[in-house]
């Protein structure tokens, strides 16, 4: 129950932050702190997405466009995702369904480092954007979370993927 309340709070806060824009954010935890990496190029893009018929989005993100607001953290994030060998991360919508007036469900395919995983994600509409989040794991993509200082500081396996897509209401 506590975990569901935490997800609801994170979803609401993210919904207010991401309203009326495109955004992709990856949040994670170390044993001593948290981190947030935002894809700045996608956040600044004017793209508007359609969710009708066969016109479902395929969002391709450049790994080097993620910024963790800390030079060392950003470098470690890009190195962990092996941005030299795998420069892109993609989120492809396979299907999309309206559940209620303001609630939607989608199956998405996330491709990272040539590993593809499918997830079901719940979305809400908020001020012209669809906002959703999903908890992923580094290990889902065969990635070993990084460690520093001989293992004294380590990144936890879980990541939260938050995103907002500006939509065309027509």
Write the layout of secondary structure elements.
Layout: H1 2-17, E1 23-30, E2 34-39, H2 40-43, E3 58-62, E4 66-67, H3 71-80, E5 88-98, E6 103-112, E7 115-126, E8 129-137, E9 147-148, E10 153-166
Antiparallel strand pairs: 1-2, 1-10, 2-4, 3-5, 5-6, 6-7, 7-8, 8-10, 9-10
InterPro entries: TTHA0802/YceI-like_sf
Signal peptide: 1-23
Keywords: Signal
Structural summary, described in words:
- The chain has three helices and ten strands.
- A hairpin with a 2-residue loop joins strand 7 and strand 8.
- The protein has a single domain, classed as Lipocalin (Beta Barrel), CATH 2.40.128.
- The longest helix is centred in the N-terminal third of the chain and has 16 residues, at 2-17.
- The model is unreliable at 2-19 (pLDDT under 50).
- The chain is elongated and about 50 Å long.
- The chain has helices at residues 2-17, 40-43, 71-80, and strands at 23-30, 34-39, 58-62, 66-67, 88-98, 103-112, 115-126, 129-137, 147-148, 153-166.
- 21% of the residues are buried.
- Strands 1, 2, 3, 4, 5, 6, 7, 8, 9 and 10 form a ten-stranded antiparallel beta sheet that branches.
- It is an alpha+beta fold and 170 residues long.
- It starts with a helix and ends with a strand.
- Residues 1-23 form the signal peptide.
- This is Lipid/polyisoprenoid-binding YceI-like domain-containing protein.
- Keywords: Signal.
- InterPro entries: TTHA0802/YceI-like_sf.
- It comes from Chryseobacterium koreense CCUG 49689.
């Amino acid at each position: 129950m506590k975990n569901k309340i935490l997800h609801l709070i994170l979803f609401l806060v993210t919904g207010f932050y991401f309203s009326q824009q495109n955004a992709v954010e990856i949040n994670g935890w170390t044993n001593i702190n948290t981190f947030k990496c935002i894809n700045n190029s996608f956040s600044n893009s004017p793209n508007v997405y359609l969710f009708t018929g066969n016109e479902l989005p395929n969002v391709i993100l450049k790994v080097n466009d993620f910024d963790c607001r800390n030079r060392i953290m950003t470098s470690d994030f890009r190195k962990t995702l092996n941005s030299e060998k795998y420069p892109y991360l993609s989120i492809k919508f396979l299907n999309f369904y309206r559940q209620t007036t303001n609630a939607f469900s989608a199956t998405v395919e996330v491709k990272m480092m040539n590993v593809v995983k499918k997830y079901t994600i719940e979305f809400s509409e908020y001020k012209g954007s669809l906002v959703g989040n999903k908890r992923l794991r580094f290990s889902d993509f065969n990635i070993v979370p990084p460690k520093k200082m001989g293992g004294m500081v380590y990144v936890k396996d879980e990541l939260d993927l938050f995103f907002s897509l500006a939509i065309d209401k027509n």
